[in-house]
Design goal:
- The structure is a homodimer.
- The first copy, chain A, is an alpha+beta fold and about 140 residues long.
- The first copy, chain A, has a single domain (about 5-140), classed as Arc Repressor Mutant, subunit A.
- Chain A is built from five helices and six strands, in the order H-H-E-H-H-E-E-E-E-E-H.
- Chain A has helices at about 5-10, 20-30, 35-45, 50-60, 135-140, and strands spanning about 35, 65-70, 75-80, 95-100, 105-110, 120-130.
- In chain A, the strands form two sheets. In chain A, strands 1-3-2 form a three-stranded antiparallel β-sheet. A three-stranded mixed β-sheet of chain A has the order 5-4-6.
- Chain A is globular and about 40 Å long.
- Mean pLDDT of chain A is about 85; it is low at about 80-90.
- Chain A binds a DNA duplex (30 and 30 nucleotides) through helix 4.
Chain lengths: ~140, ~140
DNA sequence: AATATAAATGCAATTTAATTGCATTTATAT
DNA sequence: ATATAAATGCAATTAAATTGCATTTATATT
């Protein structure tokens, strides 16, 4: 995914710092979501733990990043599609969480709407499929 | 939900201890899922923290309890429908996570199947809707 | 270009959550 | 009644997240 960190920051009136740029760059490297621990490992020498927490929180609040929880309660981050805004994350696509490599993919599959029971009003719906991803399926076949 | 802890334990060849019975009873009290911190608060004087962790893990492994992660990465537990077994949780219903009271409901809405992209094989699909639950909607109207 | 200032960062310290090891207790098969 | 294998509780450890504060940095203004 090609992104323009400087533009994104300006768009949300956030100060342009090298730490904020690095975080965006790192997350944009891959189409799959990256986990908090992975990010920490990759950026730990450049960016303080606490700063990373704060940057991720701000990005989530602003709708720049999209946070997906995996089965272990670990936060994973991906760049939001441009349709996301501060008050409403458009999560109506499927997340595929590979139980082998633990990667989380944002699939371009639209989730069919299900109607809520009377009294319940849903704002966002998040769907996660657990299974084996493309890459891991290929690896298994080879062995 | 009416459950028979003794029977459930026997069914899964688990030893019958008062702690295990208490945990099942407590969780069965309500149809909504209960969070780990809530359980700890309720049972903290009867059951040791560590024991609670272990019991919950075993129950999840055996398919007795169903663990649902909320947005904060907090584990919530509900009794599994009888269709769940050790190797396969049947989660193909919707969880409704109220953003006001934070309760998680297991709704009796069947999720329409979406087909996975080529190469991806899904084993379970979990859908969570975020919004305002029945009770909280009523409260809001009153004010 | 210099500078004022408001915000972001990094570090230390703290708080909270989860895990591990081990001695004691308990359930159950004989 | 008792042997034994498993479960529990406690203490200690490890890991994760948060808070407070001094220092640094970005940017608006002169």
């Amino acid at each position: 995914m090609k992104i323009d960190p400087t533009h994104i920051l300006k768009e949300h009136s956030l100060k342009h710092t090298k730490q904020r740029v690095r975080v965006l760059e790192e997350i944009a490297l891959d189409t799959v979501a990256i986990s908090q621990p992975e990010l920490e490992k990759k950026l730990g020498k450049e960016i303080d733990r606490v700063t990373l927490y704060r940057i991720l929180n701000i990005y989530e609040d602003k709708g720049i990043l999209h946070r997906i929880m995996d089965m272990n309660g670990t936060a994973n981050y991906a760049i939001c599609s441009s349709a996301c805004s501060e008050d409403h994350h458009h999560d109506e696509h499927i997340h595929f969480n590979c139980t082998n490599c633990h990667k989380i993919y944002c699939l371009d599959v639209v989730v069919p709407h299900s109607t809520m029971p009377k009294g319940f009003t849903a704002k966002t719906v998040s769907t996660t499929a657990y299974g084996i991803c493309e890459k891991c399926n290929l690896l298994v076949k080879k062995n």
